[in-house]
Amino acid sequence: MAAPDEFSLYAFARNQVVAASAGTGKTHVLVGVLVHALLGASELDEQKPVDPTRIVATTFSRKARGEILERLRRELDRIAEDPLASPYGASLLRYAEARALASRARRALSRVGQVGVTTLHAFAGTLLRRYAKDLGPDFEMLDEHRTRAELSAAVDTALERVAAERPEVAATLVRCTGGLLRLRGYVQAFLASAEEKDPATMVIADDASAILEEMERFHRIAESLDGKGWLPLVAALGDARRSGDAQAWEAAVIAIIERKNTPKTEEEEALKVFVDALGTEKKADRARAFLELARRRDELSPVAEHFRSLAVAARSIYRQRLTDLGALDFGEVQRRVRDLLRDAPEVAREVGARFDLLLVDEFQDTSPVQGEMVRLLWQRADLPHRPGYVPELSELRPRGLFIVGDRKQSIYGFRGADASIFAAFCVGLAGEPARLALGIARQTVWEPEAPSADFLSLTANRRSTEPLLRIINPFSARVFRPEVPIAAYEVAYNPETEDLRVPVTAAPLAPTEPRRQVASWLRPPVERVTSTKAAEAEIIAGEVERRAGEGRAYRDFAVLAQSNAMLEAAAFALACRQIPYVVFGSRYFAAREVRDVRSLLALVHDARDTAAMLEVLRGPWVGLSDDALLDLVRTHGRLRLLAPTERFDIREAEAYEKLTELVTNLSRIGNRLGPAETARVAIETLDYFGVLGALPRGAQRIANVEKLLRLLMPLATLREAVAYLDAAMDEGAREGEAALFSEEDDAVRLLTVHASKGLAFPVVFLPEVGKGASRVGSDFATAFAAHGPPAISVRLRGATGRALVPPLARAADRTARRRDRAERQRVWYVAATRAAEELVFV
Questions:
Q1: Domain edge (last residue) among 411, 444, 478
Q2: What is the tens place of the pLDDT at every residue in 236-278?
Q3: Cα 819 to the chain's mean position, in Å?
Q4: What's the CATH code of the domain at 638?
Q5: Residue 384 lies in a domain
Q6: Which of 218-227, 644-653, 663-672, 815-824 is predicted least confidently?
């Protein structure tokens, strides 16, 4: 039955904001809203059934869309038979009699396919096809992997042009970044991370002025030091400044920064804060970097301008490539829709008028552009729609908007998601009740005097046992420790409103039932500061084997990893013990067989590619021994596809000659055949599937290659295919393996935390407890929002090879590290709340 606090939600007297903690039946509530709207059991449209075509419900994935539609059909079918049998029955019967509800349910069933349950991406694409006249209706929406391939190719073209037309610029950037390949990677990473910003609109950060200000601040702090040990150093600094002796001045700066400082005064504390902000290296290294940066400060702006011009060129080439293909990427689809609704008020008014109900699922994973799309769609009709203006939250329609999400589960920052958007909408619509429930500090986000939405917090967990919840709740409170002052993207855990509880209808544990252990910690041998992935994987495999011997099914166990390398280690450890497993959400493009195909295509594209040649010759394609490879290099001076040597046995010589002939032939016709057909010819000629089939997990490996061939089908050239695969591998593309196991298969589940969203497992292993923070701020260029347009700041390579990070980039890095820390806290929450019965930390 519907809980009393859900009655007001389903009534929909005004907009609704729902914070749904893990496992609390978010989909149940979402389906309930749809059921009530379709049956006229709400205040929407004067308690009349809402036309299915006037409803749009966006969710995160096609899988979630399918689940919502299936549950909606099932619930309407149940109500058509007997409204009292529905869990929503009590709420529905407040609006109509059972017979009337059953009749309405039958009518709704006949039109349920017209309910606009869709992904936000698909919804945006539909709007573009209808209203963006310049695009036409037949444009293609690229997936994540094609997008990376096109971007990689565009960056390569831009680099080639810069090298040919402005060689001095190319030389400067290569020198500053440490090599051409690094420069290529930095440009790709910059464009990917700043995809909602156009580098052409960015300004160059005034790092030189910031460095001078930092130097002045250092002098003010240093000159304020009056302790006995400081006075000689401060005097030397002053003498050097007055005399203009640069060498003496630098020596004095180093002496002050390096001196041991256990703060006892405000001045000493100020110096400590200043020195700490310079970086994490040894004090001596920080001091020298500070001085070298001061000497070279005038280099920063020209280098930043060179990098910006290269990024602008690459983005322009990328956009032109997509135009030639008649395609848009994920981000561009949504930006175009936002721009269309913002800059064409008549379109925004027309689209908004088509809908009475807008439901947005997984709102915690909303990006700034998506947040603006929602505002534009739900702007009040009685207010003027001005071109170029995005309405404030106070200017939204008072009824019909339903948003649901959970800040604690916002883990898609790498895709542009920003947890602060959810916080802003919750408080901006529902006001103080939402702010207090979510533990958001006053003035962190805008708060209305008169809320326009009701707020509901769901905490009744239907996934985990009560004993386990008694572990998860304090664990969550300990994990979420924001900095002060709290930022809008951070979670200040509020036990009163966010602790998970067992539903009141749940059956209590029988007194005679044995209480199982619900949380434990496996400690592998530690040789260094933290345990290795291999050691953690081995102890997990041993524990699974032990428990399986006690009668536990393999399917009960799941390993949730934060890195793909951990998944590979776990798979290896389980395979060594002959324990069956299935991998979901793993880094598909890191699979050995996928890399094999990439190397073969790279070798056909360029027979001088020694790295690809080595992988092909040593791997399953040919299988040369180390002795044969070494003899090949000794005989020909380097690794080349020439005649076999005396060290080759008969099998090796035959396989090698077959490969040489194949590469020679395919190099002439490969681009005409296309990458997919080229790979298929190689597979058949060299009996690659026969080799894979004899390896452990052979069927899975073959399925992965078949999947790869399908992914390669749209690509035209070998170069394009290699760039596509390189981008997918280098940037950690998340693509699930081609699963051969059903949910009923008795096998251990291996998956990333990101792939586990919405899933539950009896026993969850959480490895990498000692995993440190990811490397944030290690890129060459940083884009950050200053007071005005976004700015670009770059790093220089110091005399020792270390990066020299200017003050503005350092400040941006601190914010990025803080955001990363907040996201890692949320990842741990998601991981822990996947367990139904037991958590095992490793």
A1: 478
A2: 999 999 999 999 999 999 999 999 999 999 999 999 999 999 9
A3: 13
A4: 1.10.486.10
A5: yes
A6: 644-653
